[in-house]
């Protein structure tokens, strides 16, 4: 069980003061939209091919098409454009687990502003490499985001650099809110918007913008069962600190939500939803297969929540899912795809003992081919096999079309071989994956039950 700590901000940056929270205003989001127009991508919001499968009109807001690969371009661009000229000489500094740092690196280099990014040791290597590639000075420091942030604040004070909070600076939130303006323009009849949530800047900006333009729009924040700081904040009605270890949604790995985001979301947000991370891997796979889009874990959580059956109330409605970013490393992508295939019975691993004579393995492969199963890998083991010396145990990984095809494979192996072992291959229906939901936050709550 995770341990929760009350959040004490020992090092507070001026833009995120718990004693002086700032509420984000719609007019400031509109001003940000005009300010950054032409400098960021107006990303498409297209209807998803998977809509019919889930019984709702799903639209994908493709923020991974920004130059940095994520929505952060909006907020960072807005913040840097508002930075005083004398402060630009000293430069800016930020702590980041990846995406905020990537965007800061790119835009600061483009605008000629000195930039330092402090990244925790747990950050993905591809994101560290991108920060360096875009020209920022990168310091890898701290076992988690909290330690990296403390180090960044210390350096910032020493060098008179402006610390830019990637998820709570008011100008950052205002810039992210432009996503909400575009969604309402692109899908005017939208019923609900599903927003991946870490520290809360994107969720806050979208909620303020969308609720102003279309008050009946339902706004849901989505977190995973390992990155649920906002859920706990609303559950306890105060900002709390959670421990985050490894997560597939590293873009959401914020231990404590923002001061300004939490303050602004009260009375604006409809609900927080938590989805298990196994569903995120499956969502990454389906988004790649069905929509031809490659997204990172954080960008897939809204689709994951739909796949997990967490939105029965949205059947038949127009739903926008924000695909926040696509900065996923090839190693992580490979793992996610294999996890997703395994979870859906399309990737099977088992052991079987076959005759170790000429033709023994060939006969086994012919059986698999006969029912259309593709052999991915096989490792023979001869030394530790019980029985006669003319047997070999094969550790087999193969690919099938799904659960029914996998069951056919299992029956085939049982029929032709005496010694075999399959891991738990019980099918996991969607409804079993429903996890706890956050507290209802809407003034007039929508029933979430069937």
TrEMBL record:
It comes from the Eukaryota. Residues 39-325 form the Tryptophan synthase beta chain-like PALP domain. Signal peptide: none annotated. Keywords: Lyase, Pyridoxal phosphate. Gene3D superfamilies: 3.40.50.1100. Pfam families: PALP (PF00291). Its cofactor is pyridoxal 5'-phosphate. This is L-serine deaminase.
């Amino acid at each position: 069980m995770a341990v929760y700590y009350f959040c004490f901000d020992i090092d507070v940056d001026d833009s995120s003061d718990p004693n002086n929270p700032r509420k984000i205003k719609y007019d400031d989001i509109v001003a940000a939209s005009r300010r950054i127009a032409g400098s960021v991508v107006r990303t498409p919001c297209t209807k998803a091919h998977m809509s019919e499968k889930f019984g709702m009109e799903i639209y994908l807001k493709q923020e991974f098409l920004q130059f940095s690969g994520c929505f952060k371009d909006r907020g960072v661009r807005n913040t840097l454009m508002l930075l005083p000229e004398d402060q630009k000489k000293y430069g800016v500094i930020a702590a980041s687990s990846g995406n905020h740092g990537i965007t800061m690196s790119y835009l600061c280099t483009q605008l000629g502003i000195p930039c330092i990014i402090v990244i925790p040791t747990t950050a993905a290597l591809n994101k560290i490499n991108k920060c360096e590639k875009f020209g920022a000075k990168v310091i890898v420091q701290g076992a988690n985001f909290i330690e990296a942030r403390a180090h960044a604040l210390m350096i910032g004070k020493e060098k008179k650099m402006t610390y830019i909070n990637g998820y709570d600076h008011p100008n950052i939130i205002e810039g992210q809110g432009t996503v909400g303006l575009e969604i309402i323009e692109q899908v005017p009849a939208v019923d609900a918007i599903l927003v991946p949530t870490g520290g809360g800047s994107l969720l806050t900006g979208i909620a303020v913008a969308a609720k102003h333009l279309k008050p009946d729009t339902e706004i849901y924040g989505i977190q995973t069962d390992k990155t649920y700081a906002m859920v706990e904040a609303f559950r306890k009605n105060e900002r709390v600190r959670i421990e985050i270890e490894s997560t597939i949604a590293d873009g959401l790995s914020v231990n404590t939500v923002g001061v300004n985001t939490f303050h602004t979301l009260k009375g604006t947000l409809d609900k927080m939803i938590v989805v298990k991370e196994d569903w995120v891997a499956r969502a990454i796979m389906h988004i790649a297969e069905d929509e031809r889009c490659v997204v990172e874990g954080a960008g897939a959580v809204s689709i994951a929540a739909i796949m997990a059956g967490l939105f029965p109330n949205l059947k038949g409605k127009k739903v926008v899912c924000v695909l926040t970013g696509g900065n996923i490393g090839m190693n992580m992508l490979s793992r996610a795809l294999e996890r997703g295939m395994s979870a859906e019975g399309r990737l099977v691993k088992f052991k079987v003992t076959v005759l170790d004579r000429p033709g023994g393995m060939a006969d086994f492969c012919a059986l698999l081919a006969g029912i259309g199963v593709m052999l991915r890998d096989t490792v023979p083991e001869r030394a530790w096999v019980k029985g006669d010396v003319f047997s070999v145990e094969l550790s087999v990984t193969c690919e099938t079309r799904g659960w029914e095809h996998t069951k056919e494979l299992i029956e085939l192996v049982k029929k032709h071989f005496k010694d075999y072992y399959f891991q738990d291959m019980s099918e996991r229906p969607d409804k079993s994956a429903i996890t706890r939901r956050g507290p209802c936050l809407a003034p007039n709550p929508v029933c979430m039950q069937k």
